Amino acid sequence: MNKTTLSKPPEAPTTPKPIGRRAAAVRERERRRARQRMTRLASRGLLVVGVVALAAILILAYRAAGPQKASSSPDMIAKPAPDFTLETADGRDVSLSDFRGKRNVLLFFNEGYGCDPCWQQTAQLQKDQQTFAGMDVEVFAVMVDQPSLIKREMPRWGLKTIPILVDQTTKVSKSYDALGGMHANKPDHKFVLIGRDGTILWAEDYPSMSVDGDFVVKQVQTLVAALGN
């Protein structure tokens, strides 16, 4: 008698198990957190950009408060100029007393590093050096930054001949009432003209950070001529 071999019925195809609710919830939370992180980063970026833009607008508004608006120092006029000895950015000593009875001296106190209008004004003074020399006027810019910072900026503005005095202690700037403005520990934008006799002929601060070069030349020319200097 033949035995009949019974074949096993075919197995049903396996299907992937559905993701559990818990796993799906975990993944959704991770996606939500990722979106929140991106939103926070974008918000911070916009905030930084907004703060920088606002600061730039305020600085421009301050410096454009009015062309050549000046804050004079009448109490300094006709007073003896405080004597000083400072080094230039290239290490040369300069004393105000060296010019007594010989030449007039024009000092330009300014913010220095980080202030483009200050460097532009210094470049203009260099351009007019020969004109000032013809009036027996020695011209110096005065900055309170480290010499290395000053020397790094000088080539950018083509400054080769105008001496820049380094007043790192701010003592000289303070004695000429030049500190203040945008920064309490830096000069603003002040011109001081000292006659051969050592007295102050002109002392004015320009918060607008911009003074026409021809105006400075004419102002100095007028004051020097009036005293027969």
List the helices and strands and how they pair.
Blueprint: H1 21-63, E1 71-72, E2 85-88, E3 93-95, E4 104-110, H2 116-127, H3 129-133, E5 137-143, H4 147-153, E6 164-166, H5 171-175, E7 179-180, E8 183-187, E9 189-194, E10 200-205, H6 213-226
Tell me what you see in this structure:
By secondary structure, this protein is of the alpha+beta class. The protein has 2 domains: 19-63; 71-226, Glutaredoxin (3-Layer(aba) Sandwich), CATH 3.40.30.10. The chain contains 6 helices and 10 strands. The chain has an 8-stranded mixed β-sheet. Strands 7-8 form a two-stranded antiparallel ribbon. β5 (137-143), α4 and β6 (164-166) form a beta-alpha-beta unit. 27% of the residues are buried.
CATH class of the largest domain: Alpha Beta
The profile of the biggest β sheet is: 8 strands, mixed
Radius of gyration of CA atoms, rounded to a whole number? 35 Å
The percent range for helix content is 25-40%
CATH superfamily of the largest domain: Glutaredoxin
Number of helices: 6
Structural class: alpha+beta
| Strand content bin | 15-25%
